[in-house]
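The freezer alarm interrupted the setup, so I double-checked each line after restarting. Inputs confirmed:
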Amino acid sequence: MADYEDARAGVFPRKKFMDLLKSYERGSISRRHFLGVTGLGAATMALGGAMPGLFTRPAYAEGDLGNQLSIATWPNYHNPDVLQEFTDKTGVAVDVNVFGSNEEMLAKLQAGSAGWSMFVATNYTISTYQQLGFIEPLELAKLSNYDAASQAQRFANEGMVDGVVYAIPKHWGTTGFILNTARVDPKIATWKEFWDRAMTDYTGRAIVHDYQLTAIGMALKYYGYSFNSVDTTELAKAEELLMKAKPHLFGITSDYQPPLRNGDAWMSLCWVGDAKQLNRDDPNMLYVLGAEGGEIWTDFFVIPKDAPHREAAYAFLNFLLDPAIQVREAEVAGYPLTDKRAVALQPAEVVNDPILNPAAELLSALEFGAAVTLTDPNRAEIIARFKSA
Amino acid sequence: MTAALATSNEGRRKSVVTALLLAPTALWFFVLLILPMLVIIVFSLGERGPVGGYQAALTLKQYASLGSRLAAFKNTIMLAPAGTLISVLVAYPLAYFLAVKVSPRWRYGLLVLVVLPFWTSLLVRTYAWMFILSGKGLPALLAAIGFPEIQMINTPFAVLLGIVYAYMPLMVLPIFVSLEKLDKRLLDAAADLGSSPLRSFLTVTLPLSLPGVVTGSLLVFILLMGEFLIPSLLGGGKIFFIGNALVDLFLQSRNWPLGAAMSLTLVIVMLVLITLYVRLTMAASAGKSRSLP
Amino acid sequence: MRIYAWLVYFFLYMPIAVIVAFSFNSGRYAADFQGFSFAWYGRALANPFVTKALVNSLIVASVTAVLSVILGTTAALALERLRGKLRAVFDSLIYVAIMVPGVVIGIATLVALASVFDAVNSLMASLWPAAWGSAPRAGLGYGSIIAAHTLYTLSLVILVVRSRLVGMDHSLVEASADLYSTPFNTFRTITLPQLLPAIAAGFLLSFTFSFDDFIIAFFVAGPNTTLPIFVFSSIRRGVTPEINAIGTMILGVSLILLFTVQVLLRDKRQGNAAEAA
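Predicted 3D structure, all chains:
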């Protein structure tokens, strides 16, 4: 939320000024201003989106986009101002649905009738979604802002199946752990130490994700196995570690920022965006990529087959791919970008940030999540037993 | 003859009207209660699909593997009665105070104040405790006045507290009603016969208010059986109830047949409990009416 | 004893007070109180995610309440005339609808509706003339949340209205019939006015239930997020007092509505108190 404030304060003032000027020309400045100040404006816009036909579309809408689309995504992943700007430009209101994990989204897709126009998916889900027929090959002709050449290949490749583009990257990132060095030994550098110390001197102070990929993956790393293993004996060892650690954990949750800030928890599995936010507010928060390895990932935009408001979804995706817009989205989400054109627009301190963009040799040990982990019944069962034990 | 005809006509018309009035509700119950339950029964006999979800089959193995979520049942079966018991202990004196000690002028107003929070957002009220029990809340306050630093959130204690806080109002009501119905002349009679206040409470008041306690306990217990929010917010993913296991089975591990079998088992357990409760309270009130001429 | 009672009231209202107090915190983080400010209310109301979810919740709750009152009242009137097995079937359905936990209702409804939609959509697609473009598709959305909420709230309304019917003065209805008033006229002039407080209470209880429900909506929501779903995801993630401001507003709305219920039902307080359970 803090980022949201930063994003509101004076990014692209010139653009804002132009918008203001435009609305002034339309003669609606006072009303809009009033609505904006009272907060009623946003409510009215939402009402307009909720009741199609009640509000007419602005005159400059391009093509027949309808007035609505819905996106399924992660919490705190978008810049509200960017969404508002898209609505102002096209008359299409964006419904945002927030989910906690890829597995949760897959469950809703399997149930059917989710009604999303587009959604966010992590690399390891793409091939499964493609096989199950949940997503369609993207019509790149409709995405004039997409430039395959400007994408970092390592990340963009994960969005392709048999050379066909099904998904376009939004962010990439790493998964490591965070230490509150005011309370714990700053020299913890490996997953082995992380788990061992969590079960001994820092008992009751560590958090593990409630998410199969990383929780099981990082337990596998304790033994030096692959992050993606589905080998039953290796998984059995990982389960043993998880069960042994459970009584010592502060929590099993993917929402670890509040307890870390409150001082309840001192160390946690951590996605890089959270690490950046925590570190910015408290320099004692140290983000570590475990020496044995860990996760590197890409999050993508995908469009479901038979997506409702499909044209609007393409227009929105194209809008989000505008390098300047990507930068504004990144300011809120806090994760690094894969598009070189957008990276070029980011401030140097973001691009050179050692947390967000670690040195290349640190990245080489990291693994992309493998498709098999999403559907492997053993992994699903282990994480369920870990949580319910 | 004509009169009889008119009545039978009217009778027919009346039953047509009744049917029409009832039709939408009947449709609702069918589509949103009976049909979903039938689907759940069908699902519970199936198998987990290769990528999760449901795959048609005819097997009882999901019921056989309910044991793999034993911990959730155990947590629920242990913490739910504990929460219920504490709720009784907290609620009884308050109900007694309201029913017996407070002047009738204030009685209902105060009672409403007890019930009111129950009808407001459970989510927000539980969040309040998340906030209070976290490191910068109550523990910090206690540490400031010299107590050792203790962890409160994500413990069984936090979940128990959340449960009692959320459902205690439900306990007060039935106990209050049963105490209010109590004939005060019985207490006067007991006093006249030289019974001490404590003795008359134990021999007269308590037994007569027992139906209220039973009603309240079952009400709270039943609600706790399906609880999801309180353990998930105050338990930090470490304390799992059946409700949490169900959400996990449908949304994370995506073993829908097992989830269906678990849902069905839960509903059956609850229906048995409710039947039991109706029998018990009926027997109790029958006993009471016999003892009070 | 009096002190004990005060303590319990303190226990009941202290958390609510804490949320309200911290909603006026000017600081950036929820847990550090830094000064008094209304800023977070402004922020919450200007946040399009919040307002959108709020509007969705208001739509869902209003429609649910209206539907429940219409269906519940008519059903209560009809059940009054019904005897025997059919009556027993309906009575048990009402209790099952109220007793089955929200988690189970949510899951079962999602799975059932998904199957129904699948069948309907493939039927529509095969019957739809190709010249008209692609066939409309049924899916989860406002409708599915409203439908699932109404199952619970209409049962609630039946119970509330029925207890009023039982306590009603039937001599007036008979007198009206004796005076050759039509049944509908009798209903309009005699029965309805007497039922009105119960209907109003049923409306408000349905509204608050639907407005506050998280778990059912969590499963059956389509592309529209309701306020509790939004709050659930942000209290887990978020750390700003914005969430306290939203919580305070939610509590405020519920409390006002509930006070109204109490006032409406004050002439039969005791019966109502038992029902509120």
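Quick read of the result. Confidence is low (pLDDT under 50) at residues 1-62 of chain A.
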